[in-house]
Amino acid sequence: MVQFSQTSWQEFSLPNVLETLRYAPMNLSISTTPLFHYTLPSELVPGAVVNYHIQYGFKAIKWTGIVSSFADNKLTVRLGDGPFRGFTASHQFVSEGVMTACYDEFSFQGFTTIPEDVFSGIIAKANLVYGIYARKNTRDIMLAVEAQKKTQSLESLDQSATAG
User: 26 in helix, strand or coil?
Assistant: First the structure.
C-alpha cells in the first residue's frame, strides 16, 4: 500500500477554489519532479467522477475516482477506473478568511501496471499541484469559446430570418 497526503493553502476563497478545481489545468511544466493533480466534477454528488493525473517526465498515470460522499466541504472518493485494485482519497476544503486550506489524503492498493516499489518512488517525489492560475486560464478559454458559439448561433439565426 502506498499513501500520500498534503496540506496546502490557496490565496482564494473557498467557493472560488471549488469552482476553479472543476477545470483541468491549461498547462503545467513537465519536469523530473512528478506532478500530481485532480479535476473535480461539475457537481459534487455521489457517483460523480473525479479525474486524477500524475505526470512524471513524458510519462503519465491517469485514473478516475467515484465520489462516495460530499458533506461539509469534505469529499470522499473511491476507485473508478485505473491501474490499481484499490484507491481511496479524501479532499477537505476549509475556509480560513480570504484563504482556503486544502487537506488531501490518498491511499493506493494493488498495482496492475506498475510495480509497487516504482510507484512508491514516484509518489515519494511527487508534488500535488493545484495550478489555480492554469485552471483559470482553461476556464477563461472555455467561456470564450462558449460565448463565440452563442454569438455564431445568434448570427446564423439572424441571417436565416432575413434570408427570405
Answer: coil
- CATH number of the domain that residue 64 is part of: 3.30.530
Condensed to tens digits (0 to 9), the pLDDT of residues 2-41 reads 999 999 999 999 999 999 999 888 666 677 889 999 999 9
Contact between residue 128 and residue 21 where contact means Cβ atoms under 8 Å apart: no
Dihedral sign for Cα 45, 77, 93, 20, please. Answer: negative
- For residue 147, the model assigns a pLDDT of 67
- What range defines the domain where residue 25 resides? 2-162
Q: Domain tally for the chain?
A: 1
Rounded-to-integer distance, Cα 102 and Cα 51, Å: 17
Whether the model clears a pTM of 0.90, i.e. scores above it, the answer is: no
Which is nearest to 37 in space by CA: 61, 49, 54, 20? 54
Tell me which residue has cell 500520500. Answer: 4
